[in-house]
Design goal:
The chain is of the alpha+beta class. The protein has five helices and 19 strands. Among the domains are: 95 residues, Immunoglobulin-like (Sandwich), CATH 2.60.40; 141 residues, no CATH class. 14% of the residues lie in helices and 30% in strands. The chain starts with 14 loop residues before the first strand and ends with a strand.
Length: 355
């Protein structure tokens, strides 16, 4: 019996099953018999598929030198089809007692347990820092995490006075998914400007090391706070995209996860969602991450207003200075206002300030 057989992408065969050590018990039949049809396995095995729309099967049977008939089955799932089916292998006339001798193979096309995509920050951050990091203990320019205030408007912390009343578990505090955003206390911090911020995406499977996410796991990226002042760029889509795009229509741009980067033109919190396109895996592969952009310049038009006011003030001062110079010269004022004396205190010297 074969259970829970699945792969990461299609059309790679789900499984290749070899059935051996099954000897034909037909009298007068065997490897020395003259019946060529039996040697090819036409009368030894009969394969029946319960759900032929789910999988495709290629079978090949042969005799080995010891007189054992071997059946090879190559099972391939159809594109983006989930479910399970039973494959029945029947051996006619294999028993003198039972009218039918057969055994079943159960093939399940589903997502394997523990398969997911993972985002990692450019700098490794320990679990303790995510939970207990205090940015006040670091210099502002060296802080790697930003403390987030409690919104109290949505989801977990709705109508709660403090985050302690939200019932957040440790897993919720470490999760970047939007349903636990009220429990999130820390977020990765970068300083403005943010250009070509490289995203490190990995494919995680149970009991296996992380693998870098690459084609054909093409992804879609979106910002969950409806912010538009950002741009995502990636390397050129390879030819495998041409084989996939005929199966679905996308409303957003597709990106190759290998070399995917973003540029952020605003400040404060960004919340992104990465989604692997359908059809390349039986799993719904989704990951979310947050970035806080700090130390931005003055927003438009305040920067220009400050520059303009400074220029006007400096110009007014220069004009006023030359006006006074012209006034003193015209009326022949011999003692300008900047010539003054400071009366010394007892026991000190006199200091004179001249032009």
């Amino acid at each position: 019996m074969l259970q829970s057989v699945s792969t990461g992408h299609l059309p790679k065969p789900l499984a290749q099953v070899s059935l051996s050590n099954v000897r034909a018990h037909q009298e007068g039949r065997g490897p020395a018999a003259e019946d060529c049809s039996l040697r090819k396995g036409a009368q030894v095995f009969k394969v029946t598929v319960g759900n032929p729309q789910l999988v495709q099967i290629q079978s090949e049977s042969k005799w080995d030198e010891s007189g054992v008939s071997i059946l090879n089955l190559v099972i391939t799932s159809n594109f983006n089809q989930r479910g399970y089916t039973t494959i029945l292998v029947t051996i006619p006339e294999a028993s003198l007692i039972c009218p039918i001798t057969c055994f079943a193979i159960i093939v399940q096309c589903s997502c394997p347990a523990g398969k997911m995509i993972v985002y990692e920050t450019p700098i490794f951050i320990k679990k303790e820092d995510w939970l207990h990091y205090n940015e006040k203990n670091e210099a502002h320019e060296n802080a790697i995490l930003k403390n987030l205030p409690k919104t109290g408007l949505y989801k977990q912390c709705e109508m709660k006075k403090s985050r302690k009343e939200c019932g957040c578990t440790e897993a919720m505090k470490l999760s970047s998914f939007i349903q636990y955003s009220d429990c999130r206390e820390k977020v990765y911090r970068v300083t403005y400007p943010v250009n070509d911020f490289l995203l490190k995406l990995y494919l995680k499977k149970s009991n296996q090391d992380l693998q870098q996410l690459s084609a054909p796991y093409f992804v879609l990226i979106s910002e969950l706070n409806n912010r538009t002042n950002w741009v995502a760029t990636s390397t050129k889509i390879n030819p495998s995209f041409d084989k996939l795009r005929k199966y679905f229509v996308m409303s957003t741009a597709m990106h190759n996860p290998d070399g995917l980067s973003i540029s952020l033109f605003g400040s404060e919190l960004y919340h992104f969602r990465i989604t692997v396109i359908s059809g390349v895996s039986f799993c719904n592969l989704v990951e979310e991450f947050q970035i806080y952009v700090d130390d931005p310049p003055m927003a438009y038009p305040f920067h220009y207003l400050v520059s303009m006011i400074t220029a006007i003030g400096l110009g007014t001062f220069i004009m006023f200075y030359f006006t006074l110079q012209h006034y003193w010269s015209k009326f022949n004022i011999k003692t300008p206002c900047w010539k003054f004396k400071v009366h010394p205190s007892p026991g000190s010297k006199l200091f004179k300030f001249n032009k």
